[in-house]
Amino acid sequence: MDKLTLALVAHDAKKDDMARFAAMHEATLRPFAIFATGTTGARVMEHCPTLSVTRLKSGPLGGDQQIGAMIADGKIDALFFFVDPLSPHPHDVDVKALMRLALVYDIPMALNPATAERLIETFKAHIAQEA
Ligand SMILES: O=C(CO)COP(=O)(O)O
C-alpha cells in the first residue's frame, strides 16, 4: 500500500492543541508523509522530533492554497485543520478555499481536536492492517 499523506494546519490560537495532538500521536503519525503550513509545521517539529514534516508557506502567505492544490492533485489523504472560529483571519478566503477543496475531493477533514482524535483511530487501524 502507498504511504498515506496527511496535512496539518492550525490557526494561531489552536497551535497548542495541534502540538499536543501531534505529540500524543507521534508514533502513529511517524509512518505517514506529513505536510504542514509553515508555522504549524515548525511547532509540530519542535514537539515531535521524530516526525519528518515538509513545511510549506505560512497560511496567510499561501500555505493554505498550497495544501489545497495538493488536495486537488490527489496528493493528500486527510486534512487535520484546527480552526479558530473566534478570531478574524486576513486570509479567510484561503481558509474557506482549503475547506472547500477538502469537501470537493471528499477527503477526511478534522476541524477540531475532538474529530481529530476519532480520525486518527482509523489511521491506527490502517497501520495495523499493513503490519
Ligand atoms: O494560517 C493558517 C491556516 O489558515 C496556518 O498557517 P501557519 O501554520 O503558517 O500559521
Automatic annotation (TrEMBL):
Residues 1-131 form the MGS-like domain. It is an enzyme of class 4 (lyase). GO terms for molecular function: methylglyoxal synthase activity. Its EC number is 4.2.3.3. This is Methylglyoxal synthase. The keyword Lyase applies. The keyword Lyase applies. Keywords: Lyase. It comes from Microvirga aerophila. GO terms for cellular component: cytosol. GO terms for biological process: methylglyoxal biosynthetic process. It catalyses: dihydroxyacetone phosphate = methylglyoxal + phosphate. Substrate binds at H11, K15, T37, G38, T39, T40, S58, G59, H91. Catalyzes the formation of methylglyoxal from dihydroxyacetone phosphate. InterPro entries: Methylgl_synth, Methylglyoxal_synth_AS, MGS-like_dom, MGS-like_dom_sf. The active site is at D64. Belongs to the methylglyoxal synthase family. SUPFAM superfamilies: Methylglyoxal synthase-like. Pfam families: MGS.
